[in-house]
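Re: [ENG-882] Designed sequences occasionally contain unexpected residues at chain ends

Forwarding the minimal case from QA. Structure tokens:
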């Protein structure tokens, strides 16, 4: 984000998973069950975010018009959710799948690092114009503000890539006011538009559900109808402020109507 957007920076691709480490001691039933996803950093090679999202192979078969792309009910403990890949820009990711009561979610922690999970999709926003997701931010990067490159860190971002290589980034920012919508990149031929959904610490440690008119946000940002959606990414970063952050994600879905 910001003048030199984090989402436009060089990423590491691909990543291989090594051993999965589970808690050494039994966890009481009233405590969350964490399964840490270990990443083998030695196997990384360079790539760019936009090609990584937008140059993926097309999905075969008929296109689903409203579907869950991040389904916590379909996870295996200690595994990256099916269809998703970890992408690292800087530092070491710390990712865990968590079961807390009847709820499953993904926990992302960042300390002086930048990474995310992404997957390919093929969605027609004319038929499924709404994007919904559940998130919970537990720690904000100190002084984070996407409007300035030196503080361009966010605890949580949901980036949506379209067929024309334009991107919408829905963010929880430390400083920028909720409702802020503005360009987040000055790099030629890279078009990223930020939408601040949440700001500051008022809603920390609460599960919140967002429902956005993706097609409407695209048209407001770029002045044209939205083309097909080709990729989605969940991201956290703290490398500019050298601070720490933590966020959690649960269900993410494209829908024909907003959640009531």
């Amino acid at each position: 984000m910001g003048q030199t957007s984090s989402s436009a920076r060089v990423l590491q691709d691909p990543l291989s998973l090594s051993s999965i480490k589970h808690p050494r001691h039994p966890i009481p039933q009233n405590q969350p069950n964490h399964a840490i996803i270990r990443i083998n950093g030695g196997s990384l090679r360079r790539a760019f975010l936009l090609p990584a999202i937008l140059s993926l192979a097309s999905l075969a078969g008929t296109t689903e018009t409203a579907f869950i792309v991040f389904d916590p009910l379909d996870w295996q403990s200690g595994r990256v959710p099916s269809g998703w890949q970890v992408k690292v820009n800087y530092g070491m990711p710390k990712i865990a799948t968590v079961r807390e009561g009847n709820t499953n979610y993904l926990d992302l922690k960042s300390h002086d690092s930048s990474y995310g999970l992404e997957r390919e999709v093929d969605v027609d926003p004319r038929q499924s114009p709404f994007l919904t997701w559940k998130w919970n931010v537990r720690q904000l990067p100190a002084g984070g503000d996407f409007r300035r490159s030196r503080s361009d860190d966010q605890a949580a971002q949901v980036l949506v890539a379209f067929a024309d290589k334009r991107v919408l980034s829905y963010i929880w920012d430390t400083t920028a006011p909720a409702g802020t919508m503005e360009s987040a990149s000055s790099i030629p031929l890279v078009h990223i538009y930020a939408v601040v959904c949440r700001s500051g610490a008022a809603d920390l440690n609460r599960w919140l559900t967002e429902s956005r008119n993706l097609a409407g946000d695209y048209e407001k940002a770029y002045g044209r109808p939205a083309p097909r959606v080709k990729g989605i990414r969940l991201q956290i970063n703290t490398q500019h402020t050298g601070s720490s952050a933590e966020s959690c994600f649960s269900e993410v879905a494209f829908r024909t109507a907003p959640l009531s």
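QA comment: On inspection the terminal residues look reasonable. The chain has a mean pLDDT of 79. Proposing we downgrade this to a documentation issue.
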